[in-house]
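Let's inspect one such protein example.
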Amino acid sequence: MKGPQLRTFALAALALMGARFSHAQALDWVGNTSLTAAVPGSPNSTFGGLPRRGGYLSSGQQLTVVAETFPISAGQTVNVVYTTNNWITTTTLPMGFLQNVGNNTRWRVQVPTLSPGTEVQFYIQATSTGGNVRFDNNNSGNFGAVYRFTPKQRRGAILQWFATDYATIIRRLPEVVQAGYSALWLPPPQKSAGGGFSVGYNPFDRFDLGDRLQFGTVRTRYGTAQELQDLIKVAHRFGLEVYADLVLNHNANRAESPIDGYPGMIPEDFHIFGTSNTGNNEVNFNGDTSPFSNNLLNNDLVGLTDLAQEDGNAVAGTNLSLPSWASFGPGGKPRFMRQPECAQYYPSLRTREDDIRAYLRRWGWWLTLGIGFDGYRLDAIRHMTPSFFGQYTDQRGPTDSASNWITYMNNLKPGMNIFGEDFTTDGYELREFAKTGMNMLDFNLKSQIDNIFNSNGFGSLTAFANGYGIDSNTGLSYQNGGLAEDVGVSFVQSHDQAQPVSNNLAHALTLTRPGQTIVYYDGNNLDPNNFNQFPKPGRFDALGAGGDTVLRLVDARARFARGPIFNRWVEDNIYIYERHVNGQATMLVGLNIRGDLTSLTRTVDTAFVAGQVLEDLTGQQPNVTVGSDRKVTITVPPNSTSGNNNNARGFVVYVPKTAAPRAGVEPVTLRNATTNQDLVLANTVTPGGIYAGGGSYRVATLDGGRLSVQVETDSLGANAFISIDNGAFLPGLNNLFNTPEGLTDGFLPMASSGAGSFSINNLDLSNLDDGLHMVRVRVFNASSADRPPLYREFVRFLQLNRTGISAVNGDLQKYGAANAFQLRNPSSNSNRIDALYVRNDDTNLYIGLAGNVDVSEGLTNGMVLWLDTKTGTGMSQLEVLADDSGPATRLLSNALVTAPPNFLATHGLAVFRRTPHSASPGTGITGSPAVPYFCGAAAGLFEINPNRINILRGLPCSIAWKPRVNRSDAAAGLEAAIPLRTLYPNGSPNLGSLSMFGYLCSTGEAGTVLRRNDPLRVQGNRPRAVSWISNQWIPTQSTVVNDPGQTSVTASSAYTFNLSYAAAPPSGVDLTVNAPTGAGSAWNQTVTITNNSASRVEGPFYVRVDLGGPLLRFPNATGFSTLQPFTGYFKVSAGLDAGASTTVTLNYTWLSSGTPSPNVSLLVGSGIL
């Protein structure tokens, strides 16, 4: 025994010595064993009793075991003997004496908190002093419970956003942040039968997120794979999580796709008769729909083809015959190489055989770590065996011995948010899924909501007033009318279910009670009065269209709905409750369900401090002040008005007053720290839906690299904190972490200059990409031991535009004369390359391809440009490339093209249709260069490496598109900015050139899938794609007159571009260099450029600084030389008139002693330096 165990045993022995006996007696019995979920380290503080087996414990709960022995006798020892690996090994845990009860002795112990996903099983062993032993093993079944994976609690509401394309959602993400939502739930992302018309619940190809031609479309209903990843990127930048709706149970129905026509699957992956009969018959199970019945688990759901995740291969009617390239693996499941054409779909980047369970796990890996999702809503889980999600003993339904899907996903991204749709209120069934580690959509609460809020005011609000408790029969936890906060995810309406009549009141409840909650939104794209459609319409004002009812509640939730709930008044018509943090109130909510025009007034106790002024965030009632007795009197408005029956705003949300803007004073001022000029906050309008317009947000543009921020509020503001994006790390600063309640994690403290005035200066934004960023400020009230932190939040947006990349916009007129022309007549005016434009400056190579591309969904056209940087590496036989990961790489890989003589392609630029690409999508300007996505990229620059022909490495670039409808129009088309350091990672050549040629082609996809018996199926899921090639080549090829189509082409020529270099200044342009001044590590140096000539000299000018090595840093450098190491420069873009001069200050960081001695010189003219 260890020390604490010995101590427990000794205390028990001492207690027994004082019992009602004089000598030891034989031990006759041990039993009455009970299991309780308790607070760790506090066995008296319990959440509720658990069943003897099959229950679960959530995060923050510890298993407490109590048992009794008979008779009362000295010298007894009682142990819990437990296992966490199904009895391979055991651990003995002594129980401590608790008390004598009647003729029995009661013993208790807390089992150590175990890792999530661990199942503990145990029995009780009691031993007397005489050595006789008794056991309680639950009638040979043993006791047990599961420590479940518990998704971490998220404070803000989840916005379920359906019926809206990704591009629109990206542009409206600032509205989502301003409202206070913390996450987005998006529809199923994969290509489904029906293509662009499908909502997504009938999957066809799970790895096609809108990047393959299938069902006549590349896009899904919501957009492309690249747009989806753009959305996730921007959402993460703004601190939003993104969840996908995941369909793991079934595929599209057999009328939409034959059973042997799903990519990556064979008929034996489903519940069917067998492969000798591919007439799409299924196993004819009985009609039982009880929990975990054969029919529920294995039959088709509304005709959708049911996947067989359980061990074995349940078929009937014929003998089973696998194809030659498949075999039975562990668990009796067919396994084969499901996607040999795309290594990027596999964690090791090497294709391998897997069965249907491993395939679904791999899909989860790919969506999580490859695409970037933070969580999932799991569709139709009650039609799947629980052991697919997590394998534990005594589970109902068939056994899946391999998947452990939830455990696998939590190991990929610990704490990720996974919640399942089990359309039932059966506690036993819900428990079996909950204990695997997912939360559950709260249909229990939804049932109560519909009953009570459709009652015309006659329902009883007392149904929502129950505290946290555990059903000892099932182990499922309940609270406030539904599932408890540790397992339930509440909602008022969804794509499947309509809202109740009193839906305002229902949202007031769900957005202020504990636990995760959802607001459903359709982007105002569905008829708000038609609830017979699918999906059903969502909450119209979720982002403020037509009113701010929900926005006020979402804000209240984000800032004040913290901690446990305490009832203050409970009766049928009115329900008043508080939320508490450390015993102190943060919010007081009142609900009034009466259907007439009657307000209800009540005086209630509170946990607010005396004298606290409370304001109603709904804006309906005046402020109230907490009395000296800590009571407050509030009036809750009626839930009906003269023009609104049973769906007015019969609720109040009282919270302590927080810092507010001063009258007529902008609360947040953004300032260019270099020029000390305030930035103008412009109003940006976002796109709306079919039935309502969009919203807006305020954004400032900064063309420098440093930002200062000033905040002004009323005198309630005591301290302030600022976060750039989602806690971006800025040079020289340390973000806060592990702060109380996490309220300022990722923030920086601001300096105070008096009550309500705060500032932070000279923030270095050099680590951030050009594009749209978020500035979030939280201003807190004065803190004290008896008050939880209270704050007001301000959100502003900042468009960084420092490098001039935003000028890359598809308008090619700025380049002047074209470098090369395309002279062949196109077969379609919608598919043309007219001319090539090439330039370079100090940072980028700029390429323009004037023309147009047909973006019709049935076509897969795009432009390709091959580059030879003259490094002696690269490829000429381009048709051997075999990257099938996205439209851009297919454009590069599928054309039967050989490069011109002496041309070795080192890079390939490919743009599918008119796809833009940069680090800041959806913001109206082109952002910094970005690496194309690993899968699904529709545009990007790729390295051509003969040793990696099936996985092309993406490289950073920025791409914009502006179509040129007719050749006679102003020059426009595809425009790309490629960083010179990308092309020349080891430095530019002193006198360099590069060659290029390109063409317009298709990806060559046929849009068909190989059937199971096709002999080519072993090589991949689809026929080999061969691009259709047009006659639109740049430069014009002597070997190409008409469209080559799908025949091989050997190019005859390439265009060679000589790189431009900055040069010494002309006579009369002088540079005056002053000596560095400073001390320690901070040094400055001023230099003056003077035009002493008789005429104007155009810029740009470059003040080049040879730093002499790594000890001297140049923080305000515009860039660094690609020719010389440790050489930076400061760029002055404007020209100088005759006699004019300009002075610049160079900032240095000196990491040595003495005085730095940089070598400063002047160059002029756009080009490499």
